[in-house]
Amino acid sequence: MKKIQLILLLIISAFSFTSCASYSNKISKKERLKLTKNNIQKIEGVYEYQAFRTFEANRKSMYDVDNDIENLDYYILGTRLSLNPIKHTVEVKIVSKDKISFTFKRNDVFVSERTIKMKLRSNGFLHLKNKHVKVKGIPLLVGGITSDKMRIGISKNDDLLLNYAHDSFGSFIFFVASRGFNRFHFYKRINPSL
User: Fold this and answer.
1) Which H or E run contains 152?
2) How far apart are CA 86 and CA 148, in angstroms?
3) What is the rounded distance in angstroms from the CA atom of residue 52 to the CA atom of residue 90?
4) Which pairing describes strands 32-33 and 45-48: parallel, antiparallel, or unpaired?
């Protein structure tokens, strides 16, 4: 009986760890410019606050966005600044070889700023060090794990590209469920950084 319990526990553990948030590369090669040490400054600039286009990797579909409630502030700051994205902009600036800053403005007036650690990876994306993992309850028995992470890049049209990966895993005794999604959001460049 103990062997059966151990085997079931190992199976459930294996399923729980395979559902961590992971990035999709389904769109990245044909839609983006690969960032390197030589061109990393290209990401600097002022961008619209609201995405104009989104790609759902799970559904393999691209669609235009006219009112996305989860604007750039939600992903970077973890909170919403305003419900009116028309008057908001965000300036992206490389602070050092391992830090990037996001300055949010409303009508060209400072609202908020956040500096995040980052790492330029060989895939040409800047991986942001703001990964969030939340554990609730006892994950394999009664509870769950939620994982979020982000990376940014530049599209071939010179717009900001944010890739957001989310996964949520939960279980109740031996009943296991998970939900995940992977989205690419495109933010229109207003002008290059000064």
Assistant:
1) strand 142-155
2) 27
3) 14
4) unpaired
Q: Which residues contact 135 (CB under 8 A, 6 or more apart)?
A: 143, 144, 145
Per-residue model confidence (pLDDT) at position 164 = 84
Q: What is the pLDDT of residues 130-155, one digit of tens each?
A: 766 677 777 666 777 777 788 899 99
Nearest to 63 by CA among 185, 189, 179: 185
Q: pLDDT-based confidence at 18, cuts 50/70/90?
A: very low
CA max distance for the chain: 69
Q: pLDDT tens for residues 76-130? A: 777 767 656 567 889 999 999 999 999 989 888 898 899 999 999 998 899 998 7
Q: Which of 90, 77, 89, 95 is nearest to 41 (CA)?
A: 95
**In this structure, what token pair is assigned to residue 111?**
């609202």
d(CA 183, CA 70): 12
For residue 174, what are the domain limits? 2-192
What count of other Cβ atoms lies within 10 Å of the Cβ of residue 44?
Answer: 16
Taking the model in full, what pTM does it have?
A: 0.75
The total number of structural domains in the chain stands at: 1
Alpha carbon distances (Å) from 43 to 40, 59, 68, 77, 113: 6, 28, 22, 19, 17
